[in-house]
């Protein structure tokens, strides 16, 4: 698995892909949060808060992470190297996890420079440092788990086809439906009796953990959904052998 992980990281940073992905993520966030007249502009909030960033990030990652993951297996299939990888002394699980952690690491690296926003918020308040540290920490933890689910979905989508474009579209669709679909359906039906339906969506648990309260039910949800899509990927690859 370690060899696959190193291979993925080298593939990202030996070309411009890794740098472009990180740059696009940071530029989009900077534009919406600091420059554009949008609902996410921090200066328009009237108080020092990173809530706009944590509301915007799930949208950006819906497109960014499937773009990172789209070549994970689809490119291997197209070039005929997937069969070669499967002849190595590793099992399918190790192959899947190597691809997963490689894409996850790149996404986390894209997230790390946003810590500068915390410094900015620290000094933007009327009283420096007067912000909810627990909320910010919880939101970053929530973002990490959100990234892990998106990455697992992107990896699964890539295992379904040898077309990177189809893998990207499928991954983005899965991420969008999983984050916004259940809560959107709940709002459309407007029935308090279907609370369990909203509970199935990522948004419910992401918003819950972003309040700064680490609930084990949210952690179990994130880990379970990530494991589910990684298992589906492993099953899909084994089925085609």
From TrEMBL:
GO cellular component annotations of the record: plasma membrane
Membrane topology: Multi-pass membrane protein
Coiled-coil features, chain-numbered ranges: none
InterPro entries: ABC-2_transporter_component, Motility-assoc_ABC_perm_GldF
Primary subcellular site in the record, as a coarse category: membrane
Membrane-crossing residue ranges in chain numbering: 12-35, 47-69, 100-124, 136-158, 165-182, 218-237
Entry keywords, A to Z: Cell membrane, Membrane, Transmembrane, Transmembrane helix
Subcellular localization: Cell membrane
Keyword Nucleus assigned: no
GO molecular function: ABC-type transporter activity
Superkingdom per UniProt: Bacteria
Name recorded for this polypeptide: ABC-2 type transport system permease protein
Protein species of origin: Mesonia hippocampi
Source taxonomy: Bacteria, Pseudomonadati, Bacteroidota, Flavobacteriia, Flavobacteriales
